[in-house]
Specification:
296 residues, 41% helix, 14 strands, alpha/beta
């Protein structure tokens, strides 16, 4: 008699099969940040997930942040991190530290991917003119070298994908005068996903997803249409940092991304659980006309 645990494993694989077939050779952009970048065990799980996506036929692009590491290094060199409306004020010295740290993180991720048998190339938004920016301001305050993306040239990404590499992108771009700017990693991932017409965009962060009551995990919403997401913002059901995340989801879908996922990177293998299972574990934002799994 075959043990039930083996049958359960077979059921998981069968459940994943239609998703593997549907998304074969499709581009998925993963924004990697939060605690999953700090915790070594979680970091290993995320990289395993991305490698598996690659090996079963997806075309993943990994866009990473590094805010906590940057803050740590800024303090190490005797400077004090400063933020305005959640955005890091980045003077010339801080920009040098940020670029150094982001490049270090980038190459660490490249090494981890390649240790699992997949060829990866680490780039920044400066390479190949991928991310062109202009100076960003908030409430009239000067943020220094913080960039707002004004143009994406995805050719370097297409070249890497076409030659079977997994691109890993750190969010640094250049303006028209070739000065370097730090870019919010969520914004970089969204802009890249839009430029390459990604099938999926997944944000890994330190939140479970969209909830109607932030104190009640049972209030997690598994699927939201763009219209419903807009209503949650308008009615004040979501607030704080969730508003820009949902606005990014809405914008990405309006620009051609098929589906956007908000996932808790603290959950081991959250990417696989969201993409290859029927119900998923985070929140998926989809087009108004798309049928929800719960309604099938």
């Amino acid at each position: 008699m075959v043990k039930q645990k083996y049958l359960d494993k077979a059921e998981v694989l069968i459940e994943a099969l239609p998703y593997i077939q549907r998304f074969n050779r499709r581009i998925i952009v993963v924004k990697y940040g939060g605690s999953a970048m700090i915790d070594e065990t979680l970091q290993k799980h995320v990289i395993e997930d991305v490698v598996l996506l690659k090996l079963v036929g997806f075309k993943p692009i990994l866009v990473h942040g590094g805010g906590k590491e940057i803050s740590g290094w800024v303090e190490k060199v005797g400077m004090e991190p400063k933020f305005v409306n959640g955005l890091r004020v980045t003077d010339e010295e801080t920009m040098e530290v940020a670029e150094m740290v982001l490049n270090k993180v980038n190459k660490t991720l490249v090494s981890m991917v390649q240790s699992l048998g997949v060829r990866a190339v680490g780039i920044s938004g400066k390479d190949g003119g991928l991310l062109k920016v202009e100076k960003k301001e908030t409430d009239g305050e000067d943020l220094g070298y913080v960039g707002e993306i004004k143009e994406v040239d995805p050719k370097v990404l297409y070249d890497l994908l076409d030659t079977d590499f997994l691109p890993i992108v750190c969010p640094v771009g250049m303006d028209d005068t070739y000065h370097s700017y730090n870019i919010n990693a969520d914004d970089a991932a969204r802009a890249i996903a839009e430029a390459v017409n990604a099938e999926k965009l997944a944000f890994l962060s330190d939140i479970e997803g969209v909830m109607t009551d932030r104190t009640d995990p049972e209030s997690l919403i598994s699927e939201l249409t763009v219209r419903e997401a807009g209503e949650l913002i308008e009615n004040g059901v979501v607030y704080g940092g969730m508003i820009p995340k949902l606005e990014s989801c809405i914008h990405a879908i309006s620009e051609g991304v098929n589906r956007v996922h908000i996932l808790d990177g603290r959950v081991p293998h959250c990417l696989l659980l969201e993409i290859f299972t029927n119900k998923g574990i985070g929140t998926a934002v989809l087009r108004d006309e798309e049928e929800k799994y719960s309604e099938k």
